[in-house]
Design brief:
- The protein is of the alpha/beta class and 750 residues long.
- The chain contains 23 helices and 32 strands.
- The strands form ten sheets. An eight-stranded parallel barrel has the order 10-11-14-20-21-22-23-26. Strands 27-28-29-32-30-31 form a six-stranded antiparallel β-sheet.
- The longest helix is centred in the N-terminal third of the chain and has 23 residues, at 136-158.
Length: 750
């Protein structure tokens, strides 16, 4: 009996000690329900946190407690020791193994086996750790520190007349950090990689293609399924034409944006777009998207609220009660579309106000004098960047600052804004490239590159060389084109242009008429000749295009048409003239070869790789009939694309030829953007030749813009060359070149 009393005292002591260790605690209950996950509940504590701040190892911590210990003793009741916490409840189902998972870690496993006590297993009893070598907070702070002083200075200078400038600047900085925090891990890793290789886009391994998603694949999801074809075209830079929400019949091809964070419903959703960019990135394809800065659609939320009389939102646009001030603007501001949308203002009858509309009446110009506008548009840009956009095309960037008494083009404040946007990208998403749409001569667009110390755009369109190329097609005289190349060759090699033969837009004749006047060529009659030839009105012309925005009053018009139709494939194909078709295909290849051999990034318009001709069905669509640019925006012909491997077809001649040129370009470093080049004399006005040369190779491109076989009277006395296209070896002297033909001569210097 004494022994039993002693045993009872010992058990009472143990119970007293247990109560001291876990006051007010109840035993752990095992509850088996219909498949409920493991719940770990605590009161007056923060939930389990995975922290990565200022340390590589990640700690799993609970408030004021030691690591949770689950002790088992010969299948006795499980004891959990905690301090100042409510008991932990472990709920399991069918005794299956329960997993508690944390992001980017091996899952913590809580296993139950044959009703044994629950075990929490960690390697060597150490706390669970996450490997995360990237210190996001440090990285962001270092990037911000590099730009903060200049960012503050430029912002305050731009808005020095605004009494709340500091508040708006602080709002900007606060939200930048939020967008950085929301940026996905894969995009952050890409940013770091590109920061270490800042010239990644200046080499010879980028080939672009531009397309409308609906014309190419119908939807974003369908486009994802077509990426094999995109890669077959050697494309790793995919420019998707405007796809954000815009109103029917008032979309301007997607450039009247009603919501910068919503995709056009017929194309899919923003999640579909993010999935597409992720799929592209896995294939090494960069995605470019337009960012329409100058205006919004009148259906945008801001415009609707402005129309409802809210002063705050009217201040985001240019509203005037009468025509007094608009009339002063009109005295100095040129008209963009004098025939289809004359003037720069639109009268709103419901508001009895005028609103500035530089482009179309349904596109209201944004007022960047209001810092809220700049902030919000930067946030919209960053939102798109976080969806996986690699190249942001800044649409109509020269127009974004308006000032009375000026032409409202290319004002100094525009450069301040672009510089701010460049710094913002380098802080939040430094892997992003800014592509400026600046439609001017090469020497005049240079300021948009900024300076070495204060860069602005990474890339600019080579608009004048494109227009001069089609001028040369119509005139068969390379003089103007050679002059343009000479100008570009004298620019710093760190400037990168985007080269193209055509795009979604029209071809405008902004040529160097001051130079042409030296040869007795006058602007108005010359524009008429170019348009007559390239629309097929001129006798024996092979081209088939249409005019856009024809203004008989000024004798001005722009040109539309696919490359194939402008080269003669359409005309000779419909005529059944096989010899003419073969010559037209050769010319098409030659023009692409010329574009591919220029310094910069070449971009092909979708459909040109298979010789797709004009689509005249746009005239049957009431939403498109008034805009002849839809002539070259037709749906991609997938049946036609099936012929690309049949050498008896146009597609089978053109597609392999472009494929070969693209592979040659990426395999020879002499095509990199930083390689110097210069034109050379051919002693024939219809033949263009230029030299590219680095330490490894010397390249000579020769292009015949004549319908006759010719001789390029060059005289390079440095040995034998190989034509990279045909494989033929020859000297670079008196080179015989077929009509509309080309050579890519190359000699190794090692």
């Amino acid at each position: 009996m004494a022994k039993k009393r002693l045993q009872k005292k010992r058990e009472a002591a143990r119970a007293s000690a247990a109560q001291t260790a876990a006051p007010k605690a109840e035993p752990i209950k095992k509850v088996t329900k219909t498949v409920e996950p493991l719940k770990v509940e605590t009161k007056k504590t923060e939930p389990v946190k995975v922290e990565t701040k200022k340390t590589d190892a990640v700690k799993v911590e609970t408030k004021k407690t030691e690591p949770i210990k689950v002790e088992t003793k010969k299948a006795d009741a499980v004891k959990v020791e905690t301090k100042k916490t409510e008991p932990i409840k472990v709920e399991t189902k069918k005794a299956d193994a329960v997993k508690v998972e944390t992001k980017k870690t091996e899952p913590i496993k809580v296993e139950t086996k044959k009703a044994d006590a629950v075990k929490v297993e960690t390697a060597k009893s150490d706390p669970v750790r996450l490997e995360n070598k990237r210190d996001d907070n440090r990285i962001y702070c270092e990037r911000l520190a590099r730009h903060l002083d200049e960012l503050k200075w430029l912002y305050c200078e731009l808005y020095q007349d605004n009494p709340y400038v500091t508040m708006h600047l602080n709002d900007l900085l606060k939200v930048l950090k939020k967008f950085y925090d929301m940026r996905g891990d894969a995009l952050k890793e890409s940013d770091l990689k590109r920061e270490k290789d800042p010239t990644w886009y200046k080499r010879n391994d980028l080939t672009g293609m531009m397309m409308y998603v609906n014309a190419f694949a119908g939807t974003l999801s369908n486009l994802e399924s077509k990426l094999d074809y995109v890669q077959e075209c050697n494309v790793n830079y995919l420019h998707l034409m405007p796809l954000l929400d815009s109103p029917k019949r008032r979309s301007d091809g997607g450039y009247a944006v009603a919501d910068f964070r919503k995709v056009q419903e017929e194309l899919g959703t923003m999640d579909d777009f993010a999935d597409l960019t992720a799929a592209c990135h896995k294939r090494g394809i960069n995605v470019c998207l337009d960012f329409v800065m100058n205006h919004t659609s009148e259906d945008h939320e801001w415009a609707k609220r402005a129309r409802n009389g809210e002063k705050e939102y009217q201040d985001r646009y240019f509203f005037f009660d009468n025509y007094d001030i608009p009339s002063l603007y009109e005295q100095t501001c040129p008209e963009v579309f004098p025939t289809t949308a004359p003037g720069n203002f639109t009268w709103l009858e419901d508001l009895h106000k005028h609103v500035m509309t530089t482009f179309y009446p349904y596109q209201w110009d944004l007022n960047y004098r209001n810092p809220i506008v700049l902030n919000e548009m930067i946030f919209n840009m960053l939102y798109l960047a976080n969806q996986g956009v690699d190249i942001v095309r800044l649409d109509a960037v020269p127009y974004i600052w308006k000032q009375l008494g000026t032409n409202c083009r290319n004002l100094p404040q525009v450069h301040t804004i672009v510089r701010i946007m460049r710094m913002v990208c380098e802080i939040v998403c430094p892997g992003i490239l800014l592509l400026g749409e600046v439609v001017m001569a090469p020497e005049k667009v240079v300021p948009y590159f900024g300076t070495v110390e204060k860069p602005e755009c990474h890339l600019l369109y080579n608009v004048t060389t494109m227009a001069s190329t089609w001028h040369t097609v119509a005139t068969k005289d390379v003089s103007l084109l050679r002059r343009q190349l000479d100008i570009i060759s004298n620019l710093p090699r760190n400037y990168v242009f985007q080269n193209y033969l055509r795009c979604h837009d029209d071809i405008g004749w902004g040529l160097d008429y001051e130079y042409l006047e030296n040869f007795g060529i006058q602007e108005v009659p010359h524009k008429k000749y170019l348009n007559d030839f390239l629309t097929g009105k001129y006798p024996n012309s092979f081209a088939r295009g249409e005019l856009y925005n024809d203004d008989p009053r000024l004798g001005d018009a722009r040109l539309c048409g696919t490359t194939a139709s402008l080269c003669g494939i359409e005309r000779f194909g419909f005529e059944g003239n096989q010899e003419g078709v073969d010559k037209a295909v050769r010319y098409d290849i030659t023009l692409h070869a010329f574009m591919l051999s220029q310094s910069g990034i070449p971009v092909i318009y979708s459909g040109d790789e298979i010789g797709q001709v004009n689509d005249y069905t746009y005239k049957d669509d009431p939403e498109k009939a008034a805009d002849s640019r839809y002539l070259h925006r037709g749906n991609f012909d997938w049946k036609l694309a099936e012929n690309r491997h049949d050498p008896a077809t146009v597609q089978g001649k053109l597609f392999p030829a472009l494929d070969k040129l693209e592979h040659i370009r990426t395999s020879h470093s002499v095509f990199s953007s930083n390689v110097p080049f210069h034109t050379i004399d051919t002693w024939d006005n219809s033949i263009l030749a230029f030299v590219r040369e680095n330490d490894e190779e010397k390249f000579i491109g020769i292009y015949n813009f004549s319908e006759n076989d010719k001789v390029a009277w060059i005289n390079e006395e440095d040995g034998m060359y190989t034509d990279l296209i045909s494989g033929r070896e020859l000297e670079a002297k008196g080179v015989q070149i077929p009509a509309f033909g080309c050579y890519w001569l190359c000699r190794s210097k090692k």
